[in-house]
Amino acid sequence: MTSAATQADVDAFLADHAEWALDDITITRTFRFSDFNEAMGFVTRIALASEKADHHPDIDIRWNKVTVALTTHSAGALTSKDLDLASGFDAMVA
Length: 94
Hints:
Mean pLDDT: 96
Order of helices and strands: HEEHEEH
CATH superfamily: Transcriptional coactivator/pterin dehydratase
Structural class: alpha+beta
Number of strands: 4
CATH architecture: 2-Layer Sandwich
Low-confidence stretches: none
CATH topology: Gyrase A, domain 2
Shape: globular
Strand content: 15-25%
Number of domains: 1
Helix content: 40-55%
């Protein structure tokens, strides 16, 4: 099992990724795109990255908005898997 990220790790992540918000043991971000097709292309890319990492976010799609929520349920906490995947998602839209 993956161990929980330290508070210092979470704080450092949030300092470097201001678009993400912490809610208890979950980090979330809403990505905005010009239209539905761009949003769905992003969803496809994050789905492939998530499958490769064997770590799957909650994804909510609203036309041009994609909200992603990450936590590691088996650890009952945020882990490096969550922070790494979130960083990768950010890189996809940079």
